[in-house]
Amino acid sequence: MTQDKHLELGLFLRKKRASLTPEEVGLPPGSRRRVEGLRREEVAELAGLSSDWYVRLEQGRPVRPSAEVLLALSNALQLNRKEREYLYTLGAQRLPDETPDSFKVSPGMQQFLDLQNPYPAYISDHEWNIMAWNRAARSVFGDYSAMSKLQRNSIWRAFMDPYMQMLLDNWEGHSKLRVSQLRMAHSQLPENPERTELIHQLRTHSEKFANWWNEQTIAGTPEGKKLIHHPLAGDIRLNYLSFQSEELPNATITIHLASDTESKQRLERLQEQSKS
């Protein structure tokens, strides 16, 4: 690292520290705070570093942080994907590859999901595991927080969760589409152990999945529309869109919108019921 990089790294850390409030990182607000944002010792504690060593980083001293230290600072300062890339560049380290176990939704991304209420919104990883959601998604599709990782897998749920089979008007078309998507992904990367185990479990426990998997050519329902039969709210018609964010490579954000006024009102009622 050059001296300029050390100074730039220190400046970046100071700016990010000043942009956060204690409440945002789970600390008490305190009183008589003489600095804007967090204190240096608070960032050091959040990152598991000594205060003296962190101060040297902010001052642009010639110390080189490890990749593990940069990861700890990224989490402590709640950096998004682009900010993490910038931090690792300044620190002359390689940004670790995203894996299912390291998948982390930032507070800003969670806030984005929450702002979609009363419309269901969630984030899934590249293996169709639901990783984050808002209150509306939980009210419509089930309580993800009470599910295991396998139970939050959309393909597993399509075949193994009776609630989804009751909820989706065109369950068969939806499920055939999931099989097609899984087959395509598996053909491109057959050595993926998590996916291989999922396929094995589904072929073992679901006769329909096994039959459709063996057919190899499967036509499913196009993405974009859903009619659901909610046990409390009644029929809800949804249009939905999916897109990716630079902050979460290999992840998909899905937002469901009401396709008519009556569906919108039913989603709003569900939202109110979930608050009580």
Automatic annotation (TrEMBL):
One of its GO terms (molecular function) is DNA binding. Signal peptide: none annotated. It holds the Pfam family MLTR_LBD. Residues 12-84 form the HTH cro/C1-type domain. Transmembrane segments: none annotated. Gene3D superfamilies: 3.30.450.180, lambda repressor-like DNA-binding domains. This is HTH cro/C1-type domain-containing protein.
